[in-house]
């Protein structure tokens, strides 16, 4: 898991450098081409080093081109960002800053290069939206990715076996979220800690209460 996250960050770094070169060398096509080619040539080596150590994400029987690795790394980092927002104190506010909500649902916009957005039917609770988005996207990744292997010596037990490494990575991401220590007394809007002994309070203060009210009014309109 950590090794793939390192790989994904390294691949993303090449994308950022590639974009920087394209913006900075618009007038010199020869130099731009040489620099971009050098950056792109780093990517196969990064992927090969990971694959040699851990194997292919999709199994050795299924060949995937570099483009597929780049795409998977980008989607992995997007979902990892959401997972971190759910488990980090104050992360719910970061999630809210990246979403646009209307009567149809919630659109989450990534800040990572060449990433788009994700859509879910939304609720009026930011932390619920974050968890639902992550669960929805990881469910797509895990579809058809596991099997139950029963033990012959004990008919009441079975091992859950991932089909490929990619399924194990996303399962680990979700388990990290559900196993995280609950953030007790957390504002449903910004995610900050709520002071006081009353655990039934939903908002950390009047500002978040008003923000939630305005959001509901906008949805009704």
Structure description:
There is one protein chain. The chain is mainly alpha-helical and 221 residues long. It has helices at residues 2-24, 29-40, 42-54, 66-87, 91-97, 126-142, 165-178, 206-220, and strands at residues 99-101, 106-109, 117-120, 146-151, 154-162. A three-stranded antiparallel beta sheet has the order 1-2-3. Strand 4 and strand 5 (154-162) form a beta hairpin. Helix 1 (2-24) packs antiparallel against helix 3 and helix 4 (66-87) crosses helix 5. The protein is globular. The mean pLDDT is 84.
Q: Which structural class best describes the helix and strand composition?
A: mainly alpha
Shape, please? globular
Major sheet size, sense and barrel closure: 3 strands, antiparallel
Query: What is the percentage of strand-forming residues?
Result: 5-15%
Helix-residue proportion: 55-70%
- The number of helices is 8
Mean pLDDT: 84
Which parts are unreliable, with pLDDT below 50 for 5 consecutive residues or more?
A: none
Evaluate the radius of gyration.
Answer: 21 Å
Distance between the termini: 44 Å
Number of strand elements: 5
N-to-C SSE string, H for helix and E for strand: HHHHHEEEHEEHH
Task: Present the secondary structure layout.
Layout lengths: L1 H23 L4 H12 L1 H13 L11 H22 L3 H7 L1 E3 L4 E4 L7 E4 L5 H17 L3 E6 L2 E9 L2 H14 L27 H15 L1
């Amino acid at each position: 898991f950590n090794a793939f996250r390192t790989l994904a960050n390294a691949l993303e770094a090449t994308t950022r450098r590639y974009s920087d070169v394209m913006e900075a060398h618009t007038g010199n096509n020869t130099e731009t081409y040489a620099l971009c080619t050098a950056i792109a040539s780093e990517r196969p080596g990064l992927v090969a080093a990971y694959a040699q150590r851990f194997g292919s994400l999709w199994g050795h029987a299924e060949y995937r081109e570099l483009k597929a690795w780049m795409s998977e790394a980008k989607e992995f980092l997007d979902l990892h960002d959401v997972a971190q927002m759910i488990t980090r104190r104050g992360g719910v506010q970061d999630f809210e800053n990246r979403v646009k909500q209307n009567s149809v649902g919630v659109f989450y916009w990534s800040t990572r290069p060449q990433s788009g957005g994700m859509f879910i039917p939304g609720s009026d609770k930011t932390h619920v939206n974050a968890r639902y988005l992550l669960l929805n996207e990881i469910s797509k990744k895990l579809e058809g990715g596991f099997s139950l292997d029963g033990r012959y010596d004990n008919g009441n037990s079975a091992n859950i076996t991932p089909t490929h490494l990619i399924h194990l990575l996303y399962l680990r991401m979700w388990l990290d979220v559900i196993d995280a220590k609950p953030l007790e007394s957390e504002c449903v809007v910004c995610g900050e800690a709520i002071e006081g002994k009353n655990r039934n309070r939903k908002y950390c203060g009047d500002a978040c209460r008003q923000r939630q009210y305005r959001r509901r009014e906008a949805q009704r309109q």
